[in-house]
Design a protein that fits this description.
By secondary structure, the chain is mainly alpha-helical. It has a domain at 78-235: dinb family like domain (Four Helix Bundle (Hemerythrin (Met), subunit A), Up-down Bundle). It contains 6 helices and 4 strands; from the N terminus they run E-E-H-H-H-H-H-E-E-H. Strands 1-2 form a two-stranded antiparallel ribbon. It is globular.
Length: 236
């Protein structure tokens, strides 16, 4: 199978009567792509940043996708809550949903937490990534701590072979969840409006509120991924 990577510039390329059956696009930029008279039966698109438009036969399907995801994951619609009380309620719902997912995993066969589906992160790695996301966007960006990162955290571009004990992952993850809860328990509207810097692009302005919103987006996004992969594992 031919593989194209970052060194291959395919911008503006045209594929005419090309057989792309079974092709896989990973971390690919397809924004603005135009498809005409294509057969996409069985196609599977996962676009975590689906915030613009996606037209299928002239119909923008983004609102339908968002509505369906909110139906499948009650509480997801509140991830952009803007005031302290609403944020506390949004986080409480998220905690409850994650707790149910952890219980589901605990009842599955041993080793399930380390199973990777189609090269994606395992459940344990997903929890480690959420530790990193909390460290970056709450501890570093919002709280401005000097040493915010826990070594167990896992970043987007990291593929470490290290596999810390799952009990340790759960312990650190629980600590970060409690940290967000405690922060939201006392935060005020004025504190949420305080300016901050984007941890990945310091020239980009943020607020404490926007940093919290990133944490919520990460939580719901990776809950969806984890649920999807757990369903795949169960289906065999």
């Amino acid at each position: 199978m031919t593989t194209f990577n970052r060194s291959d510039d395919l911008r503006g390329a045209k594929f005419v009567e090309t057989d792309l059956c079974g092709a896989r696009f990973v971390k690919a930029d397809l924004s603005g792509a135009v498809m005409r008279e294509v057969d996409i039966d069985g196609a599977d698109i996962d676009a975590p940043w689906l915030s613009g438009s996606l037209r299928v036969n002239g119909v923008d399907v983004v609102p339908f996708v968002e509505a369906e995801l909110n139906r499948r994951f009650p509480g997801r619609a509140d991830r952009r809550a803007a005031d302290p009380e609403s944020l506390r309620a949004a986080w409480a719902t998220l905690e409850h949903t994650w707790a149910a997912t952890l219980e589901r995993v605990a009842a599955m066969p041993p080793g399930t937490v380390d199973v990777s589906v189609d090269g994606e992160w395992s459940f344990a790695q997903t929890l480690r990534h959420l530790v990193r996301a909390t460290d970056i966007w709450l501890r570093r960006a919002a709280l401005q701590l000097d040493q915010p990162l826990h070594p167990i955290g896992l970043g987007h571009d990291e593929n470490t072979p290290e596999r810390p004990p799952y009990d340790e992952v759960l312990e650190v993850r629980a600590g970060r969840v409690a940290m967000v809860r405690d922060f939201l328990a006392t935060v005020t509207a004025d504190e949420l409006a305080a300016p901050r810097k984007n941890p990945h692009a310091p020239e980009e302005p943020e607020t404490v509120l926007s940093c919290v919103h990133v944490v919520l987006e990460e939580e719901w996004g990776h809950l969806r991924y984890a649920t999807r992969d757990l369903d795949t594992i169960v289906a065999g």
